[in-house]
Amino acid sequence: MAKTILIINGPNLNLLGEREPEVYGHKTLLDIESECRVITEKYSFKLIAKQSNHEGELIDAIQEARKSAAGIVINPGAYSHTSVALRDAIASVDVPVVEVHISNIHAREEFRHYSFISAVVDGVICGCGTDGYQYAIQRLISLLVH
Ligand code: DHK
After folding, report:
1. pLDDT in tens, 82-109
2. CA distance 141 to 133
């Protein structure tokens, strides 16, 4: 059975393509997931994508991934800056995790500069636009296949 990589997106990222395109770009979440799937298939990984606007559902997805995923790419959206619970869930996971921010959070409002998540992940991709998801997948694969 193919190993699974999970992409988790948090609140408001279901609106990608419509929401503040000058900040988050023009691609939809489905576009991004399809681009990532091209990469995962090349390396014989299965890609599962989850999005939720609810903190508890994101935590449930992370807890499930403890048993089922080989690695996780996560954009926690605004919960990056607020959620100790999400941070604790990620800290409980043994597989590699790469955090993505589409925008450069350090060049934006001060409340976005700190991510509770960054200290407990294996890598952070920030400010590379929606291409950041593909970079994160590439990084996960290189951690998983070497
Ligand atoms: C996405 C969001 O929804 C914001 O709340 C974060 C992040 C930044 C991003 O750049 O992908 O502050």
Report:
1. 999 999 999 999 999 999 999 999 999 9
2. 12
With contact defined as beta carbons under 8 Å apart, do 78 and 35 qualify? no
Q: For the whole prediction, is pTM greater than 0.90?
A: yes
* H helix intervals, 46-96: 55-68, 84-91
Q: Is the CB of 115 under 6 A from ligand 1?
A: no
The two three-digit tokens of residue 7, written as one number: 């992409």
Q: Which residue has the tokens 């991934």?
A: 65
| Alpha-helix residue ranges (DSSP H) falling in the chain | 21-24, 29-42, 55-68, 84-91, 131-145
Question: Read out DSSP for 85-98?
Answer: HHHHHHHT--S-EE
Ligand 1 pocket, residue 75 CB under 6 Å: yes
- Under the banding of pLDDT at 50, 70 and 90, the label for residue 137 is very high
Ligand 1: residue of 14, 23, 51, 75 to mutate (most ligand atoms within 8 A of CB) is 75
Instruction: Judge whether 146 counts as a catalytic residue.
Output: no
Rounded to whole angstroms, how far apart are CA atoms 48 and 72? 10
Are 61 and 76 contacting, i.e. CB atoms less than 8 angstroms apart?
no
Distance between CA atoms of residues 75 and 101, nearest Å:
6
